[in-house]
Amino acid sequence: MDALISRLNALILNPELAPLLSVLKGARNGMVYGSKVRFPHALVMIFLFRSGTFREKIKLVFNATRHHARNLATFAFIYKASMIVLRNLNVAESGKEGRYDSFFAGLLGGYAVFGRQRGSISKQIVYYIFARVMLALADLAVQPNMHPLSPLITPETRTKIYANAWPVFASLSWALVMYIFRWYPETLVSSLRSSMVYIYADSDHWDSLRNLFFHNK
């Protein structure tokens, strides 16, 4: 057994197999991470806001966890495999990563895994990514030497933008979501709408001490 393990260790440390093994490990890590993230979230949200029997709720939790894990694993597999292919297609310097390889690999993976699916879990993942991308782009927009208008942003202006960007972003985000929830709630994603109904709409109704403080309804 020790000899077999030693041979396997030698095999997986072979530099020629490193690209292929990195793809497999990327898929493995995507599956594990997706499970860790989705399981507790689905457990809480489904048991709090979904109706049904205990068995039905458990099934929903595991289905959501499996879906999230599968999406991240598949995306990681496609992304890392595409990066390997693009490196080898680099006509200028074969085997070297190009400046925009990650963009095109992400574009392919994003379309194949998330772009062709409209399920709630896929949408939640894309919403999460989109919000982080917008924040990152806003940060890059005021960095020196990032675009033709960068020289117009002085260090003093940049400092003021950094100091005020988050308060403005947070305030406008909540102002807009509350306005949309008040007048166009059907346009919000169902999980967000459910939580907001629970906090802001259900709190307007009670008929006894029991459902004023101890139970929602």
TrEMBL record:
It comes from Penicillium chermesinum. The keyword Nucleus does not apply. The keyword Transmembrane helix applies. It holds the Pfam family Tim17. Keywords: Membrane, Transmembrane, Transmembrane helix. The lineage of its organism: Eukaryota, Fungi, Dikarya, Ascomycota, Pezizomycotina. GO terms for cellular component: peroxisomal membrane. The chain crosses the membrane at residues 125-142, 162-184. This is Peroxisomal membrane protein 4. PANTHER family: PEROXISOMAL MEMBRANE PROTEIN 4. It comes from the Eukaryota. InterPro entries: Pmp4.
